[in-house]
Write a structure and sequence with these properties.
With 350 residues, this protein is an alpha/beta fold. 31% of the residues lie in helices and 16% in strands. β10 and β11 form a beta hairpin. The structure holds iron/sulfur cluster. Iron/sulfur cluster binds next to α10.
């Protein structure tokens, strides 16, 4: 049996704010087949060198090292993860690890129709599809490719593929798609998919971000209350980024209020880029290079030691610090992004 059994996972490490290391987002590629305005608005990008991209065996070794320290939730991300060739092989490898209790994937959905059943068969538990609008012309304006029909097909196929959960993530931007909240909720309901509205975030790569374009959690709830009546919170959030709510008809949805009401205090997430840089926070300027020690022959135990040493010193609370910034503008200028692809949201896996 590959990986670690539950019994082998005895160590729990805490950072400087007593936050455990539980959840790992693994980017499998920095490439994407869309160019969403809130993530990749620039005309061209610097990409990670191909030879630096971790192969599946390398990713599996790192996941085992993380799992030995308590990570039991793994989410595959990108860029667009479905662009990575033979991704089902990685899914099958990770799904076979008992320590990985929850294996999920976030996709833009463009290639999902042809891959959903294969991913499910390989053992993927849950899937989240990004969908910002139901209007084809608007989709093209936001994502700059005419791919809404493909995404909708992908959601249709995924809904029938038998995943434990299907979610839809919507980045809400003023004057772009903020008039579609209820249409998206109705759409999600048809597919048994919970919709999560995400506040527009000023992360690296969001070079068109402005405070005025943010629709806050508070405003979303006020608008939805006007349409649906009273909305009640659903408890049990734990460390999940989304706060969940229930409409009077029982429909549940989430809001991820990273911009106006961040939740760093409970954050147990970290990110691994496709070339093996481990980032302790979405806003972190740098990270721990795990590719070099891995390729130089470090054992799983040695990698775990490195990881636990760094996590125990973690004091990141990027979104909360941004909230306190006096003049909140674009986080990282374009010139700096061009010099360092690791600062980009599409490299660090959103
Ligand atoms: S900003 Fe950083 S510390 Fe805060 S929730 Fe996001 S990843 Fe976690």
């Amino acid at each position: 049996m590959p990986g670690l059994s539950h019994n082998e996972r005895t160590l729990v490490i805490l950072d400087r704010f007593d936050r455990p290391l539980r959840s790992l987002r693994v980017s499998v590629t920095d490439r994407c087949n869309l160019r969403c305005q809130y993530c990749m608005p620039e005309p061209d990008y610097a990409w990670l060198p191909r030879q630096s991209i971790l192969d599946f065996e390398e990713i599996a070794v790192l996941v085992d090292a993380f799992a030995s320290l308590g990570v039991d939730r793994v989410r595959l991300t990108g860029g667009e993860p479905l662009l990575r060739r033979d991704l089902t092989e990685l899914v099958a490898q990770l799904a076979a690890r008992p320590a990985v209790r929850d294996l999920a994937l976030t996709t833009n959905g463009v290639l999902l129709a042809s891959q959903a059943h294969g991913l499910r068969a390989a053992g993927l538990h849950r899937i989240t599809v990004s969908l910002d609008t139901l209007d084809r012309e608007r989709f093209q304006q936001i994502a700059r490719f005419d791919e809404l029909p493909a995404v909708l097909r992908g959601i249709d196929v995924a809904a029938a593929a038998g995943f434990a959960s299907l979610k839809i993530d919507t980045v809400v931007i003023r004057h772009r798609n903020d008039d579609e909240l209820s249409a998206l909720l109705d759409f999600g309901k048809r597919y048994g998919a919970e919709v999560r509205f995400i506040e527009y975030m000023d992360v690296g790569g969001a070079t068109k971000w402005s405070r005025d374009a943010v629709v806050s959690r508070r405003e979303m709830l006020a608008r939805l209350s006007e349409i649906y009546g009273s909305i009640e919170p659903v408890g049990g959030r734990d460390s999940a980024p989304a706060e969940r709510f229930r409409l009077p008809d029982g429909t549940t949805f989430g809001i991820i209020a990273s911009t106006t009401e961040p939740f760093c205090a409970a954050c147990d997430r970290s990110r691994l880029t496709a070339d093996g840089l481990w980032l302790l926070c979405l806003y972190a300027r740098g990270g721990l290079d795990l590719r070099h020690p891995l390729r130089e022959g470090a054992t799983r135990e040695e990698l775990a030691h490195l990881i636990s040493t760094v996590w125990s010193m973690r004091a990141d609370r990027g979104a909360e610090e941004r909230l306190g910034a006096p003049a909140r503008e674009v986080l990282i200028p374009v010139a700096a992004l061009k010099r360092n692809a690791h600062l980009e949201m599409h490299t660090r896996g959103g």
